[in-house]
Structure formats: C-alpha cells, structure tokens
Q: What sequence folds into this?
C-alpha cells in the first residue's frame, strides 16, 4: 500500500491527539519534511521505530543493548552473556560499551559475546575526555579494539564534552581513525545544544553521527532543545538510561504495567516503545538476564495507541507539560 506525507494541518491534528508538546511536534515534523525515507517507513508515527538511519545512510536497530555494568559481577557471567546473545537474536544488534566501564571489563565481556558473529553487531565504544590530548584518542581506540577482539568499531563516541577550543582537534583525530578504517563513524555524548552547535562549526564537525544523552519518560529534558535540533540535522539521538537508570527504574510503574497488560507485554517494553516512537531515537537499555532482555525486545513489536500516549503524557509530563 502506498503512503503519502501528511499535510502540516493533518500532522498537527494527529500530534494533538497524541498529546505531544509543540517542540515534540516540531521535531517529528522536521523528520517528515527533511527525510522522506523515514515517512515511507512510518517513522513519523508512534508505531514505527524499528530502525534508525544514521547520517551516512547506515541503518541500525532502534533498540540496542547497553553494557555499562556487564562483566563486572552483578550477575553470573554466563547469564549475562546469554542475555546479550538473546538480544542479538531478537534484533537488538547495536551494543554500546566504553573503555572506562569497569576499567575495560565491559569491553572484554562484549568481545567474548560477539566472538564469531562480529558482522551481526553494530559495535559502539567511547573515549574519555581526559584522553583527547596528543595521541590519546588513537591509543584509547587501539586499547578498546584489543579488548573487544575486533579490528574496527562501527561507532566511536567522545564520552563527555571537552572545552570548545579542543573540538577541532578531537574531530581531526576521529577523522584520521575513520580514514584508517579503525572506526566507521564517530559521535559525541552528553553534549548540550550550544556544544552541538559549536561542534558543527569546526571542519568535518558535520560528520557527527549521534549525540548519546539520557532520555526516558522520567527524564524528558532533551525535548526542550537538543532533540528537536538533532532531528532538524537528521542526526539521531542515542538514549541511555531509557528505563530511568538504576535509581529511577520505570519497570515497576503501575501506569506502564496497565498499558503493558493491554498489549500483552511488559512495563519495560512500553517505556522503551515510547522512547523509540519517533524513529529518530535509539534506546540502549541494559539487561543482565535473558528474561529481562526478552521483555525489552517486546518494544519492537508493539504499537502504542493515541490513548496510551495521552495516558503517558499525563503521567510523565515533559518540560512543557502534558500537552
């Protein structure tokens, strides 16, 4: 069946029915107007969001897996390994780690899990802000590649901002790694709007693939500025702590449980489906058990209704309120 783009009036009416804020409406409208490919897959609606397109054209799963605490004794290592392998088998093929997670233990863990199936995985790691001087970035990258047992990263991120004056040097190092085939793309993490604007002003800054930031029903601050701006740039956001983080978990929330019961899925799946609803956000929840991973993966197969969206907007108003 062929699909057409909605007019601005039709689009606004549908967003109002979903209880979306004006900034959120603007962000979604930017996707529809600037990226017809998203509209062709329904990415401007809350029912899409299975994949996300990066600026270089690469398509990744909208639902990946975080590895902040994995391989560090929270759960039996065999159980954690099975949890990540389960996620890969269910389509959660983007795996996010960092050289400083457990002082490299997370990367070593991920390396063991993906051994023999590297080509199935979109692998993300990070360099720290205190490693950017001199040849720190290439040295950190080589250390990560060794721990991960691979010869390239799909995406390499600057874990936290550095002073603006260092942006051009960081980008140059990333571009050198990309030219050498050590990384296929690069991005940033925890950048605010001004930092993103400054980044795109330096040579090759426009090659930034993503900004990884906290985003969940509990934490909607990026809807004020960062999310709409990134959407206008056709740059997806990668959402860490999409279930609220260790101390603010959403999985026991009664509202989410009620919506989940209506869809035959978990509260976690509802929360994650909300995060990836626009087709422009990648969520990277962490799971230490196969059962929880399966619950998370349900987010790829449910479609939140306008009523669900109104209920969630009332329960978790964003920076501009519930509407």
A:
């Amino acid at each position: 069946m062929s699909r057409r783009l909605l007019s601005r009036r039709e689009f606004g009416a549908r967003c109002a029915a979903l209880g979306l804020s004006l900034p959120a409406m603007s962000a979604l409208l930017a996707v529809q107007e600037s990226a017809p490919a998203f509209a062709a897959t329904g990415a401007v609606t809350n029912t899409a969001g299975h994949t996300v397109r990066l600026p270089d054209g690469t398509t990744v799963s909208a639902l990946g897996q975080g590895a902040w605490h994995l391989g560090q004794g929270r759960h039996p290592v065999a159980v954690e390994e099975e949890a990540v392998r389960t996620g890969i088998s269910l389509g959660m093929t983007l795996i996010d780690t960092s050289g400083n997670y457990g002082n490299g233990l997370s990367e070593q863990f991920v390396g063991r899990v993906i051994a023999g199936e590297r080509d199935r995985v979109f692998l993300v790691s990070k360099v720290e802000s205190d490693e950017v001087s001199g040849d720190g970035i290439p040295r950190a990258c080589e250390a990560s590649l060794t721990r991960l047992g691979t010869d390239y990263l799909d995406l390499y991120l600057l874990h936290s901002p550095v002073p603006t004056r260092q942006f051009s040097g960081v980008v140059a190092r990333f571009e050198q790694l990309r030219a050498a085939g050590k990384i296929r793309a690069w991005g940033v993490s925890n950048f605010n709007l001004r930092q993103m604007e400054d980044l795109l002003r330096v040579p090759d800054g426009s090659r930034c693939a993503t900004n990884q930031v906290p985003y969940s029903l509990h934490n909607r601050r990026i809807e004020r500025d960062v999310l709409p701006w990134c959407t206008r740039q056709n740059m997806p956001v990668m959402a860490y702590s999409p279930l609220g983080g260790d101390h603010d978990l959403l999985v026991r929330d009664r509202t989410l449980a009620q919506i989940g019961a209506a869809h035959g899925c978990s509260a976690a799946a509802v929360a994650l489906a909300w995060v990836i609803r626009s087709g422009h956000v990648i969520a990277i929840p962490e799971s230490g058990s196969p059962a929880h991973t399966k619950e998370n993966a349900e987010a790829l197969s449910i479609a939140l209704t306008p009523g669900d969206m109104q209920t969630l907007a009332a329960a978790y108003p964003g920076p501009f309120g519930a509407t």
Confidence is low (pLDDT under 50) at residues 1-49.
